[in-house]
Write a structure and sequence with these properties.
45% of the residues lie in helices and 13% in strands. Helix 5 runs parallel beside helix 12, helix 6 crosses helix 11 and helix 13 runs parallel beside helix 15. The strands form 4 sheets. Strands 2-11-10-9-8-3-4 form a 7-stranded mixed sheet, with helices on both faces. By secondary structure, it is of the alpha/beta class.
C-alpha cells in the first residue's frame, strides 16, 4: 500500500514538471513564429472579411447613370446657414406672408365638410385646378387647351422637369442646356442616359450699368450644337440666376432651330409673371410652329409665393404631355388634393381680375421692382457690380472689385465664388449663392466672379443687408 502511494506521488510530480517545461518551451524565442503565424491568420481573415464587405457595398453603389453626382449646393449652403445663422439672401424663397386669400383657401379646405378634399384626387391633376389652368393659358396663348389631356399637375416644377426629361430623353439623346442653369437640369438628363450639351450666356463688355439683356447667346455657337441627335433644348425665361428675359428675336432664333431639327423645347417659365421695366414675357409656344415643339412648365410656388406647397404643372399638346403622364403615374402618381384645391381657388379669384391692377400677378412685380433697385444700389455702393435683372427675383453681382480687400485663404474650396460666399457667411453674416454651381464642370470658371442674391425679401432684411455691407466698406 505504501509502495503504491509513493508511485502515485512520483507520477504526479513528473506530470507537474512536464507541464512547467512545456510552458517555458512555448515562451522561448524559437517558438515565437507560432504567434506570428496566428497573427497572420487573423489578419488574413480580417482582410477577407473587409473584401467581402466591400464586394457587398460595391453591389449597392450608385448606378452608373448616377455616378459622379454630388450633393447640391442647396444641401451645403442650408447646412452653412443653420450653423452660422447669417442674413440669408441666398435661397430663393419669400420671407414675407403669402397673399391672405391663398393661405385662407387652404385653411378653409382643412375645415371643409367635403371628405373627398382629403383623399386621393385624379392622378394627372385635380379637375378644378386643370380647368382653371386651361382657362388661364387658353387666353394667354390664344389656343384652346383641353384640361384633361394637355395639362399635368406635378410635385412642383421640379417634378415637371423630371417627368419631361425622363419621358422624352432616350439613351444617347443630346439635350442642349443654356448656362448658367438651374442645377437639376444636368443630373436629370444624365439619369435619363442623355448627353448634356452646354452653351453659356456671355456677358457683353460695356461701360456703365449692366442689364440682364447684356447676357446673350452666340447664335453661331448655338446653331452648331443642333444635329440629328439633338432631342431637346431647355429654355429658362425669365432666367435664373441672371434675370434675363429672352426677347422675341432671341426666341425666334431658338424656334427656327427647333423646327429645322425637329427638337423639343422645354420652356421653364416659373417666373412668368415677374418681369420689370415694361419688358414683355413672350411664351415661345406662341411662335409659329412651336406649339407642337414645346412643353411649358409653371409653378404655383413662384406664382403665389408659396414655394413650400410644391405644386407645379406642365402643359402642351397631348402627344407630348402623355409621355410625362406615363412617368408621373409610375412615380408620384398624384399630388396632394388640398394643395391643388387651394391653388385652383386662388387662380379662380385672379382670373376674375386678370386685367386689373390689383391682380397679384401684376401687383407682385410692382412691389418687387423697388426692392430690386434698392439691392442694386446698395451692392453698387459697396463696390460690387450688379446685373440689373429684367425678370425673376435674383440678382448677380460681380464681387471681384472687392478682391483686394479680402483674404479668402481660410476657405479651401476649389472655386473663388464658393470661397467668397462662405467667407461672407462666416465673417459678415450675409449669405449668397455661388453661381459656379449653375455651370458644367468645364465652364465653372465663368461663374467664379459672381455671387447670386435674392431680393424677394422683407424690406427690413434688405435694409440689414445694406447696413452689413456699408459697415464692412
Amino acid at each position: 500500500m505504501r509502495a503504491t502511494l509513493v508511485i502515485l506521488v512520483l507520477v504526479v510530480c513528473v506530470i507537474c514538471v512536464m507541464l512547467k517545461t512545456c510552458r517555458r518551451v512555448c515562451t522561448l524565442p524559437r517558438f515565437s513564429g507560432i504567434r506570428t503565424l496566428n497573427a497572420a491568420i487573423t489578419q488574413r481573415h480580417q482582410h477577407q472579411a473587409a473584401n467581402a464587405a466591400k464586394d457587398t457595398m460595391d453591389k449597392f453603389d450608385l448606378p452608373k447613370r448616377l455616378q459622379g453626382s454630388t450633393p447640391s449646393v442647396w444641401n451645403e449652403y442650408i447646412a452653412l446657414a443653420m450653423q452660422y445663422k447669417p442674413l440669408n439672401l441666398g435661397q430663393g424663397f419669400p420671407d414675407d406672408a403669402a397673399p391672405d386669400y391663398v393661405t385662407n383657401a387652404l385653411a378653409d379646405i382643412a375645415k371643409d365638410p367635403n371628405p373627398l378634399l382629403h383623399q386621393y384626387t385624379r392622378g394627372n391633376g385635380h379637375v378644378r385646378l386643370v380647368q382653371a389652368l386651361a382657362k388661364l393659358y387658353s387666353g394667354l396663348i390664344g389656343r384652346e387647351l383641353n384640361p384633361l389631356n394637355d395639362i399635368l399637375i406635378t410635385a412642383g416644377a421640379y417634378e415637371a422637369l423630371y417627368s419631361t426629361i425622363m419621358g422624352h430623353v432616350d439613351n444617347g439623346d443630346e439635350v442642349i442646356i443654356i448656362e448658367p442653369f438651374f442645377d437639376c437640369y444636368e443630373p436629370m438628363v444624365k439619369m435619363a442616359n442623355g448627353v448634356p450639351r452646354f452653351i453659356p450666356l456671355k456677358l457683353r463688355e460695356k461701360e456703365g450699368p449692366i442689364s440682364s439683356a447684356d447676357w446673350v447667346l452666340d447664335e453661331d455657337e448655338l446653331s452648331k450644337l443642333f444635329n440629328e441627335k439633338t432631342k431637346m433644348i431647355i429654355l429658362n425665361t425669365p432666367h435664373n440666376p441672371t434675370g434675363k428675359v429672352f426677347h422675341r428675336k432671341e426666341l425666334e432664333v431658338i424656334a427656327d432651330l427647333c423646327r429645322k431639327w425637329n427638337v423639343l423645347c422645354v420652356s421653364d417659365e416659373v417666373y412668368e409673371w415677374l418681369v420689370f421695366d415694361g419688358v414683355e414675357h413672350v411664351r415661345i409656344n406662341t411662335l409659329p410652329g412651336m406649339w407642337e415643339h414645346t412643353i411649358t412648365i409653371g409653378s404655383a410656388g413662384k406664382t403665389f409665393s408659396v414655394t413650400g406647397w410644391k405644386t407645379g404643372w406642365a402643359y402642351g399638346p397631348h402627344e407630348l404631355i402623355r409621355n410625362l403622364q406615363m412617368v408621373h403615374q409610375n412615380s408620384v402618381y398624384t399630388c396632394p388634393t388640398p394643395l391643388q384645391e387651394g391653388v385652383a381657388r386662388s387662380f379662380e379669384l385672379e382670373l376674375e381680375r386678370l386685367d386689373k391692377p390689383e391682380c397679384y400677378f401684376h401687383s407682385l412685380p410692382r412691389e418687387l421692382q423697388p426692392k430690386r433697385d434698392f439691392m442694386a444700389k446698395f451692392l453698387n455702393e459697396a463696390g460690387l457690380r450688379p446685373t440689373i435683372p429684367e425678370g425673376g427675383y435674383f440678382m448677380l453681382a460681380d464681387w471681384t472689385p472687392l478682391a483686394s480687400k479680402l483674404n479668402l485663404d481660410s476657405e479651401t474650396d476649389k472655386y473663388k465664388d464658393y470661397k467668397f460666399t462662405k467667407w461672407m457667411t462666416k465673417n459678415m453674416g450675409l449669405q449668397g449663392i455661388p453661381p459656379s454651381a449653375f455651370y458644367s464642370e468645364p465652364n465653372k470658371h465663368l461663374g467664379e466672379d459672381f455671387v447670386r442674391y435674392c431680393f424677394i425679401k422683407k424690406q427690413e432684411n434688405l435694409n440689414k443687408a445694406a447696413e452689413l455691407l456699408k459697415s464692412w466698406k
